[in-house]
Amino acid sequence: MFIPRLLLLALLVTAAPAAALTSLETTATVTSVTAYRDRALTQRTATVRLKPGTNLIAITELPVLLQDDSVRVDGTGPAGATITGIEVRRRHLEQTAEKRVRELENEIRDLERELGKLDARKAGVAAQKNFVEALRTAWSDRLSKELAVRRPTTAELNEVMGFVGSNVTRLDEQGRDIETDKKQLKDRIDALKRRKNEATGSQRKESKVVEVVVESRREGPFTLELSAVVGQTGWEPAYDVRLAADGTSAELIYRAQVRQQTGEDWQNVNLTLSTARPASGGAPPELSPWRLFFPRPLPALASPPSSPRPTPFVAQKAVRMAEAEDHAESAAEEAPAGFQTADIDTGATSVSFRIPKPVSITADGSRHGTVISVDRLPVATDYVAVPKLAQGAWLTAELTNKAPYPLLPGEIRIFTGATFTGSAVMKKVAAGEKFVLPFGTDDQIIVRREEQKQHREAGMFGGSRMTYRYRVIVENLRKERRTVTVRDQLPLAENSEIKVSLEETGLKPDERKDDGTIAWKLTLAPGEKREFTFGIVVEYPKDRVVVGL
């Protein structure tokens, strides 16, 4: 009888025994982390033993923050092993916390019994104090009666005072000790009750599971490598800059602050910090249509109150503090400790900083600090003074980013030698770009501005004229030549009928900007003192009021 080929194959498959299905469950250990600014790529490993046939491997206890679409799985094992399926799903774990709750309840009961014993001791001490007080009263009555008949001896008085005094002191001390013990027991009871409430409320916990189907022709160990992106983590740059004593160079320490709240601690992981921005996507933004049309008439709306103009950044008030230094005792010559820095990989669009040694970062959101690089940068220093606003001169330094990677925005702490002078915010600085940092005021550079007079008079052709005159004094008390830039300003006329001019008296400004800023750059020898004057003239129509004069 002729049997079709397809039907024969179906009969053979039906008659064959079903392939073995092996279910395996394991957890994966985080081995390496690549941290971005707002997320992280974690890599985990797990090892199981495959059986011949189909193996369903469940990788459990993964954080809920794991992004499903970012999961990738690779594996190495016996020849012929093939990954045929991957699935990510949520799992609600029913916690058997009843046993732990009972243990906590037993501990609480034991401590409450101890607390009851202390209350009983306290009552006993109180009874003893009452007894001593009664004796003291009785002795006082007896002595009062005896004083009418005879004078008590010194020994009798000492006996009464010693008995009463020693026992009152002893009982007071016992009372204080009991109160201290009671407070400690109550704190322990409160802590156990909180733990009990937490255990009672954590009956249901959510996690994620990655199920991997592996077909294998033979038995053997199989190592899974699972990579996935998790949220609620990232890193932020932070900097320390220390100006050398001669002012010609500065040490820039590039740090990273890593924090994570993924729900699992990272123990001894290989950490890499990346400047890539996965959140912005890999493609450029697309343009929307640019439409032109005549607007419909709209009712007039009250304009919102204007927001205050942002004030220019001023470094925080300088605070002097000694920098702590650790010294190791050794027979060899002492030297300052260096920093472990990162290995740097420059890619096409981002930079990666690989921390050379494994690190551990807890999931409580605390910041873990590590050093990326330490660079010595050339510096061009200058002094800037704005005597209209404040007397004195501020030391500024122009630095150049010599690294082949950008310096990302972050907080920067500024030191002059061992003195902390303030903090600022570092803007993004590209490789090779110059940037300026403030290093606080210098008491040995004196700059002050004195107003000589204000004069108002009628101008020509019936106009009005307002004149301001100032004297600026600059003095260099240092032993080195210093350059000081003195900044002031002219008022800006917002009406063409208002005329503003600068009266120069021999020293022309080196800089004059459209925003009204004027600046003089003075180079002073050691101990030199210089001064100059200038005037500001404002002319406007007669009988008009000018706001701002």
From TrEMBL:
Give start-end of the signal peptide.
1-20
Q: Name one Pfam family in it.
A: DUF4140
Residue ranges occupied by any DUF4139 domain in the UniProt entry: 224-542
InterPro entries given in the database record: CHP02231 (IPR011935), DUF4139 (IPR037291), DUF4140 (IPR025554)
Q: Does Signal count among this protein's keywords?
A: yes
Instruction: Please report the stretch or stretches of sequence annotated as the DUF4140 domain.
Output: 33-131
Q: Which residues form a coiled coil?
A: 94-128, 168-202
Keywords of the record, alphabetical order, are: Coiled coil, Signal
Q: What is this protein called?
A: Mucoidy inhibitor MuiA family protein
| Organism annotation | Trichlorobacter ammonificans
